[in-house]
Amino acid sequence: MNGWVVLLWSFVAALVLIIAGIFGSLVVMGRISLFPEAGPTSAPTPVETGIVDPSISVMILNGTPDEGLDTRMRDTLINNGWAADDVFAGDSSSQDFAATTVFFVDEADELAAIGLANLLGGAAVQQSDYYSGQTEDGEKQFTVVIGLDRSTSAPETPTGEPAS
To answer: What is the pLDDT of residue 141?
Structure first.
């Protein structure tokens, strides 16, 4: 009986030494970290809310087949602080513009364009010099093209190209 107890303890001791050796070698090789370092946490990216700047004139083009969307949007801007002389409304040359978009020319005006887009109930904001020739020298102007996303009688296939 004494021999079996010694043999059992020998197996237990060998097993403990093997496990300790494997664990020790994993720690030395860097596979296991006893005290892990805190990893970098990613902070959520802030969403730009923009600023509302009624000193910049706005040209509104109705890029849909619906009549009166441009004048309703013009009234919305006038009711929110824009001077009536600074907001121009009209129909665009196309009636199949895909999404309502606020176009701006200068990068410095991006926050004001975002503010205008939010004021209009959400619209895409895009930098483009397509409408830059529509103003006098040095005068800032946003161009809002009303898209089929605001239309009640939208055609089947919108093109999404800039309207004039």
So the answer is: 82
* Three-state SS letters, 57-126: EEEEEECCCCCCHHHHHHHHHHHCCCCHHHEEEEECCCCCCCCCEEEECCHHHHHHHHHHHHHCCCCEEE
Strand partners, 31: none
| Segments of the chain with pLDDT less than 50 | none
Task: Say if residue 77 is in the same domain as residue 146.
Answer: yes
What is the spatial distance between Cα 71 and Cα 116, in angstroms, rounded to a whole number? 16
Q: Is the pTM of this model over 0.70?
A: no
Supply the range of the domain harboring residue 93. Answer: 57-150
CB 123 within 8 A of CB 92: no
Contact criterion met (CB below 8 Å) for 123 and 100 = yes
Residue 48, SS3?
coil
The SS3 call for residue 136 is coil
48 in a structural domain: no
Residues facing 10 on adjacent strands: none
d(CA 64, CA 150): 8
